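Changelog note: in this version the structure field was regenerated for every chain. One regenerated record is shown below for reference.
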Amino acid sequence: MKRVIIGGTHSGCGKTTVVCAVLAALKARGLAVSSFKCGPDYIDPMFHESIIGADAHNLDSFFCDDNTLRYLLCTNGEKSDISVIEGVMGYYDGVGGRGSAHSVSAATGTPSVIVIDCKGASESIGAVVKGFLDYKRPNSIKGFIFNRLPERLVPLAKDICEESGTKYFGFFPVTSFSLESRRLGLITAAEVADLKKITEQLGVLAEKHILLDELMNTAESPLPDFEPLKLNRLFENKHPKIAVAKDRAFCFIYSDNITLLEKLGCEIEFFSPMNDTKLPDNCCGIILCGGYPELYAAELSSNSSMLAAIKSAAASGMPIIAECGGFMYLHDTMKMPDGSEYGMVGAIKGTAYETQRLQRFGYVTLTADADNLICAKGESIPAHEFHYWDSTDCGESFKAEKNDGRNWRCVHADKAMYAGFPHLYFYSDTGIAQRFAAACAEFGGIDG
């Protein structure tokens, strides 16, 4: 199975641009390409999807054990000519040895290539190369791509690789194209004008300057053995329909969460809280994912019929998972930085408001105080937070704890609701999806 991790020295080194360029070049060659993102990020996979024309996936070693990582990689990439896996932050960056691109590489036996940002450097590039090769042994680093390297320094980069016993996989020149960022990372793919034209141009640059044939050869590697996950369909004849929010305001969706629900026998129908006037007909569960509802607060607030429909659904006991932006949407009001307030659903009695720094950022472990929609009392599940906004009532149904011992109370949860800032990845514990699907079926009067 051909696969390669394209990692980086640090966040902002250009690995997303290089990965998008490589994906575009491979697609232009007529290859079937699968793409993955290490870690919990939502935005980078949106760019991948726009290029390859298919779902992108996450591989997160904090969320998943090694066997599950290998299962997801094989399941989502087995029909492709090559799987390209984008790293997260710096190659070795993670939490307690998990969550990093390095840990995903070790778990899946995947060769790695590291992107170095060479702006403002020359021979010091050699120290970076040797440092990454030697920092942790063993590692699967096969070579390097030199981003923003002046072409006159290509011979130097080749010499450094030869002296270090590693491969030169090419360079990527300074371009006029850059992915604009906002506080939660890159702007989304849907917000980039002329994205198709831009990615085509990136593909041309990759074909010219990156050694794609060498990359393909390096990507040939046997996948370690794994046990397929046992996912039994819960419903055969009549399927519970789950309404999943998806539009410009709500776009942080793990594709694997959706496919897992489908594997269990659920029917998924997407809807837009911004533009639709009602929930999908005959739905018996709702997922309100994260995104940027604050950017579209006026539109969301003015869609009174949708606000009323979701409030009524919550009051009736319809199962609802609402994460981060979806949680904010359930509040009484959303308060903007200028002091203006917009009415929202009103299922959570409180106000969502903006802060000036990241709140409770990173991986957490959630432990439940009582039986609820997604787990039983005392059970723990991994989650991730990444938000500048906060709430006057974050909830107290779970204890969240970080790897360093910091902890706090969060989430509104009962038998019909999970609503809070922490994001969930269903393959971290497939029981989350099973409990949610069963609750939706029970609400809809559907037998298994």
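Spot check on this record: The chain has two domains: 3-218, 241-443. The chain has a mean pLDDT of 94.
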